[in-house]
Amino acid sequence: MDHPKASINPSTELSPAIISNPEEEDLERNPDKAEDVEISTATKEIPTPEERDGVENTAPTPKKSLSFKLAFAGLAASLFVFQVDATCLGIALPTIAGELKGSSLESFWANLAYTLCGLVTQPVWASISNAFGRKPPLYVSMGLFFIGSIVFAIAQNMNTIIVARVLQGLGGGGLDLLAMVILADMTTLEERSKYLGLMAIPSAIGNIMGPVIGALFSTYVTWRWIGWINLPLLGIAIPLVFFFLKLRPVPLDTTVASNLKRLDWIGMALVIIGITIFVIPLSWAGSLFPWASWQTLLPLLLGVAVLVIFVFYEAKPAAPIIPYRIFHSKTGNLTLVGGFIHGIIMVSLLQYLPLLYQAVELESAISSALSLLPTVIISVVVAAVSMLMVPLFGGYVWLLRLSWVVLTLGTGLLALFDVGTSSSMRYGLPILWGQGVALLRLNILPMQASVKNVDDTSLAMGQFLAIRLFGGLVGLTISSAIFNNVFSASISNTTIQLTGALAPLKDASNAVNFIDELRSLDVSFTMLDQVLRVYLKCFQTIFYTMTGLGGLGLLTSVFLDEIDLKGQDLGNQRFEE
């Protein structure tokens, strides 16, 4: 953007030739004072750079304007919408599929489409926002999500549900990424822990509250409100962002064609195709097709091949979608590993913990969701307070290590669930796990965003969020494989006769769908207890596996280097009043 040059009135210009210095005139009249002046000048102490920095750092941080706060609220609202939709469908999907007469395959695609589209597009949104500015892709993302929500709410068949989830996923990937990237642009390193922490609170609430909202709507109102509820929330977010989010524009070329040449089109195509081909068989392995089948192995290998080509190709473009330079930081790379592990644990247990309440404790879907409310409330409060402590301790590393300890211990405690667990234990056991999940969700991302060059913030955050989402998909695959294998082995070691009402359990892939039937089974108490304990063993094995992964995450945090929180650099697309 060109700025007009300031004009100076010639009559007010300062010229050394016409300015009189009273001290110089006095020295000319009294030469004896010259020696005193020289001595006085020589004894003046010039502050060192460290002293100057100390003075600068003690200066009070200017308060944020009302426009900043309103723009922040708009971004937070959009992020909340994305996170709610990420977790609310799973618990409502049986109701939706039953009403619309959907097949298992259609239900599978409806559940996968949202996460997959969000995963593959996040690096793309990051690259586009670097080339064209943050706001245009943010508006497009909001529009896609808005349209997708309407399509979902009025759907009359499962194919329309899948299309709606694709649109929501494409838009949601942009909302998730750009909200965090824009806030990183708007804040300095010193401020970032506070504001990214505050931004992650609605994200964490939405993520954990999603199953509750899905259960409430599908049980007491209609599942269509899962789509309708997004419209008023986006109706708040869109005007706030449009009118109050004022970012420094990116200089653009005069023609659209030259602007489009900035993008790494081949890299985008390779990463989208590679991730899609790789993730889809991971999602259906063990459920729709066996792991050893060609339907699973062939696309897996093709996906790996495309991603390998992508890695080598990224050395060529002038502005690659994922440049090599963002992998030069040891702390940044370890943070990516931690984000991947965090995604595995978080998404897996958000999926299977409510199922435990339904299968082992025989709770309804809505009761299982409400059982997690204490975990939601306490976790968010503790995580928010922890973010305010980051500046006091001078960094994130101590909190990240503590968070991994809490998550690992909390996940291990979940294995204490038993058939007929007391109400206090049902409410209390998940609390420590929830705190670990929320703490890491708040703290890993600022750590990742802060170790890169300020101009690479969007690319660094894009790859981190994509890797965490990918971790979630891998986690669901691992948990599904564990559940099916343990169920098959355990049910065959019992005296249960799998006939009549229990006949579907001969195939372990039916075990999850059969959970809704457990409360109404007409079998003896002894037989029901055996069935419930088979389910319990499946969940406990998942918890043990995730506990081990939590320990691995803790190990990665041991080698992290602390980052300096005193930097005052803002992003190149910073907020402007």
Question: What report would you give on this structure?
Answer:
InterPro entries: MFS, MFS_dom, MFS_trans_sf. It is found in: Membrane. Residues 71-565 form the Major facilitator superfamily (MFS) profile domain. By secondary structure, this protein is mostly helical. Among the domains are: 65-251, MFS general substrate transporter like domains (Growth Hormone, Chain: A, Up-down Bundle); 264-318. It is 71% helix and 0% strand. The protein is built from 20 helices and no strands. The chain has helices spanning 22-29, 33-42, 49-57, 66-100, 104-132, 135-153, 158-186, 189-220, 225-228, 230-244, 256-260, 265-284, 294-313, 330-359, 365-371, 373-393, 397-413, 423-450, 457-492, 525-558. α6 (135-153) runs antiparallel to α10 (230-244) and α16 (373-393) runs parallel beside α18. The radius of gyration is 29 Å and the shape is globular. The protein starts with 21 loop residues before the first helix and ends in a 19-residue tail after the last helix.
Helix fraction, binned, reads over 70%
- CATH H-level superfamily title of one domain: MFS general substrate transporter like domains
CATH topology of one domain: Growth Hormone, Chain: A
> Order of SSEs, N→C?
HHHHHHHHHHHHHHHHHHHH
Strand content: under 5%
What structural class do helix, strand and pairing data support?
A: mainly alpha
Low-confidence blocks of residues: 1-59
| Strands, total number | 0
CATH architecture annotation name of one domain: Up-down Bundle
Q: What does the radius of gyration come to?
A: 29 Å
Average pLDDT confidence is 81
CATH class group of one domain: Mainly Alpha
Characterize the biggest β-sheet.
Answer: none
**What is the chains' assembly state?**
single chain
Give the termini distance in whole angstroms: 16 Å
> Per the principal axes of the C-alpha atoms, what is the gross shape?
globular
The number of helical segments is 20
Pfam families: MFS_1
GO molecular function: transmembrane transporter activity
Subcellular location: Membrane
InterPro entries: MFS, MFS_dom, MFS_trans_sf
